Inverse folding.
């Protein structure tokens, strides 16, 4: 029959036998996590995914591994699986602004705009200094038709980050949706000044100027957008319209013909309409 002292000794030895296993499991999780980060940095996403899977398997509730695995899934275009990981991060760390922010950004890709807005509102509350959360929140509002909320979000964020080109561009586009063209022009002109070689910014400013019936200024920025390589035949058509509004008929004719040539194979009806307009001006 075992004595009390021998039973205590056995219990102590049993405890010792458990501790190394737990430590080894934790060390393995950390090792796989770090290896996953290295694979992710080098662009080997499949290997990164394997390591993050192993890290999560070795440590339950490993929020950082779920977050990183979510990033890999998102990069691979697997948005639904990425969302599951971000939701798990939120569950494990309810004050994780990045968890809410990435969940919201992923919901944007899934076109779940109202749900995205709710996540991003929380992300902004938790971390008002992260400009990406504010930008994405404005996008969620705009995509769900809440233009006033989008403008308010972009305005507030632009005051905090006055030289952020993306915010200024988004503010300008949202204001244009409200038909507040003068204010939109101010925001977009500032964006273009900060990043003059961005074709999309030049085009957004040109469209807004045309909407404001400032055709001469619009021509300047359509020309710049096209020169910078904007690949949108509609920009050439809009430029032709501006020339026509300015009664610069020769330029309008050439530009309508240029549009017709660019679009003839993909949209013959649009090409015919442009040629008809050109002919009426000749």
């Amino acid at each position: 029959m075992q004595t009390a002292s021998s039973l205590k000794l056995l219990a102590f030895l049993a405890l010792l036998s458990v501790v190394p296993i737990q430590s080894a499991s934790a060390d393995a999780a950390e090792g796989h996590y770090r290896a996953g980060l290295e694979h992710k940095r080098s662009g080997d996403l499949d290997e990164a995914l394997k390591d993050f899977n192993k890290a999560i398997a070795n440590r339950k509730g490993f929020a950082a591994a779920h977050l990183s695995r979510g990033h890999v899934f998102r990069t691979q275009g697997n948005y639904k699986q990425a969302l599951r990981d971000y939701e798990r991060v939120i569950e494990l760390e309810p004050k994780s602004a990045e968890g809410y922010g990435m969940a919201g950004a992923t919901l944007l890709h899934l076109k779940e705009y109202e749900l995205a807005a709710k996540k991003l509102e929380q992300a902004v509350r938790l971390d008002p200094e992260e400009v990406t959360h504010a930008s994405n929140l404005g996008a969620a509002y705009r995509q769900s038709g809440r233009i006033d909320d989008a403008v308010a979000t972009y305005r507030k964020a632009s005051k905090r980050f006055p030289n952020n080109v993306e915010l200024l561009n988004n503010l300008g586009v949202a204001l244009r949706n409200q038909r507040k063209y003068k204010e939109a022009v101010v925001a977009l002109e500032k964006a273009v000044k900060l990043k003059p070689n961005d074709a999309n910014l030049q085009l957004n400013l040109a469209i807004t100027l045309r909407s404001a019936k400032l055709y001469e200024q619009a021509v300047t920025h359509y020309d710049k957008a096209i020169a910078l390589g904007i690949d949108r035949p509609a920009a050439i058509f809009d430029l032709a319209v501006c020339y026509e509004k300015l009664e610069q008929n020769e330029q309008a004719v050439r530009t309508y013909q240029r549009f017709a040539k660019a679009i003839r194979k993909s949209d013959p009806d649009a090409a015919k309409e442009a040629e008809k307009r050109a002919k009426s001006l000749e």
